[in-house]
Design brief:
By secondary structure, the protein is α/β, with parallel strands linked by helices. The chain has 15 helices and 20 strands. The strands form three sheets. It has a nine-stranded mixed sheet with strand order 7-8-6-9-10-11-12-13-14. The chain has a six-stranded mixed sheet with strand order 15-16-20-17-18-19, with helices on both faces. Strand 13 and strand 14 form a beta hairpin. It is globular, with a radius of gyration of 24 Å.
Length: 457
């Protein structure tokens, strides 16, 4: 891997090299934190999990052909090279920074409370109309996932679209200092992770820290429909560019025509007074917002309106992310990867576009702090006000969600299940042929099991 010699790696993570000096100038061919993924001449970084000491797998990695190991435990005298560091987690970030800086490449950094992954996919789809693009796989967006994504960079890549997710103060700078973005995109400031950030203003302060690591001459792209982001003053001497539904934004949309679960037709306007009609192929007004973010990044990267339109309309769907699944009996809106109050309401808006009976199968949302119960009730009430026919709440906290649905209106029926197993046992009697069903919960609820069961009906 470019520039990743054992010597450079040791210096980058301020470690102490132990081993054969003749190997000091050798480049590793890959960097992994999963011992099962080690191949010959790879570097294994031993990061301990909550329950597992990764260092016990070091012998297995050497047998698999690892060139070197990074360890925070003193391994003593060994017959293989290793680099002793204070923290393997920090070392992983340091090595990723070394590798990222080896590339002359445009980096788009994306963060926000909701919609990071769908916006990342939209921006990547647009940029790919002109450039060879590398992007975050899934939501590998934390202090382990971001480095793993960066290690996937290759010589042919011209643009990297990197998602960054945080849930504690101080995490953003550890990520953004590695990514060193040229373009900073923030989707919104919601209420995700209030347990740790306490207020939306706290979330705003942490998310905008990404801009502190933006390269000189960089571009800031923010959602102008967000009340906090829209008030953002110039940072590092750079005035933000705003996207949103109103024409006060540099990039905006009108003539918005929902096409049900087939997507949304709209006209997108660019700052140079040009515009184009397009169909955003995934449903929901938030996907139009994502398209505007894609248009803003596309213009920054020098794409033509025709290329931007092609990228928007060519956006692929992703399992667990607003993915429409049609079976002989049901239409399933698979949005089960993760959830917070903002994204939950956005998904309910999408379900509301469906034709026919509308069913929301919703689970617990985590990390909402002291307002957890009320925020769940608000989502239930929102579903009822949207006229969702049936709200199924699953999980201990979602009992509050069902109670909220009850106070939101008499037309909505709410049913609570303590566990997924309880719901799966009852769904055959609850659901009807032709139902449109939204499935959404925090990732830990593992609602993919429900999506699979619905497909089998």
């Amino acid at each position: 891997m470019k520039n990743l010699t054992l010597e450079n790696i040791t210096k980058a993570c301020q470690g102490i090299y132990h081993g054969d000096e003749s190997l000091y100038g050798r480049e590793v061919e890959g960097v992994v934190i999963d011992s099962r993924k080690v191949k010959p001449n790879y570097l294994f970084v031993a990061i301990d999990g909550v329950k597992v000491n990764a260092h016990k797998f070091i012998p297995d990695t050497i047998k698999a052909g690892a060139l070197c190991v990074v360890s925070h435990e003193d391994l003593g005298e060994t017959d293989f090279p290793y680099i002793l560091v204070e923290s393997t987690g920090q070392a992983l970030l340091d090595i990723a920074k070394l590798y990222r800086d080896s590339f002359d490449i445009k980096v788009v950094g994306i963060t926000g409370s909701a919609g990071k992954t769908s916006t990342k996919e939209m921006i990547a789809s647009v940029a790919a109309q002109k450039y060879c693009v590398h992007k975050t796989l899934g939501n590998f967006n934390n202090e382990w996932g971001l480095p793993i994504t960066i290690f996937g960079l290759e010589e042919g890549h011209q643009v990297a679209v990197l998602e960054m997710g945080v849930n504690h103060f101080g995490e953003m700078r550890r990520l953004s200092s590695v990514a060193s973005p040229d373009i900073c995109v923030i989707t919104n400031i919601g209420v995700a992770h209030l347990e740790f950030f306490k207020t939306r203003e706290g979330i705003f302060r942490e998310k905008t820290q990404m801009i502190q690591d933006m390269k000189n001459g960089g571009t800031i792209i923010l959602n102008g429909d967000d009340d906090l982001l829209s008030q953002t003053a110039p940072i590092k001497g750079v005035s933000p560019i705003f996207f949103g539904m109103g024409d006060e934004n540099s990039f905006y949309a009108d003539h918005i025509n929902p096409l049900g679960l087939k997507g949304t037709a709209c006209t997108i306007y660019l700052p140079d007074d040009t515009s184009f009609e397009c169909v955003v192929p995934l449903p929901g007004i938030h996907m139009v917002s994502n398209a505007l973010a894609g248009a803003a990044v596309g213009c920054t990267l020098g794409l033509t309106p025709e290329e931007i339109k092609a990228g928007i309309e060519g956006l692929p769907s992703i399992a667990g992310r607003n993915n429409i699944i049609k079976t002989d009996r049901l239409i399933i809106l698979d949005d089960c990867y993760n959830a917070n109050p903002v994204s939950m309401k956005a998904s309910i808006d999408v379900l509301d576009m469906a034709i026919g009976r509308k069913v929301a199968v919703l689970g617990d949302m985590g990390e909402l702090g002291e307002h957890t119960g009320e925020l769940h009730k608000e989502v239930g009430e929102y579903a009822a006000k949207k006229g969702i026919d049936l709200v199924c709440g699953i999980g201990p906290i979602s009992k509050e969600l069902v109670e909220g649905a009850a106070r939101g209106g008499d037309a909505t029926k709410g049913v609570w299940f303590e566990t997924k197993a309880d719901f799966l046992a009852a769904m055959g009697t609850l659901l009807k042929k032709g139902d449109n069903i939204l499935v959404k919960a925090s990732h830990g609820m593992q609602f993919t099991e429900i999506v699979e069961a619905l497909q089998a009906i």
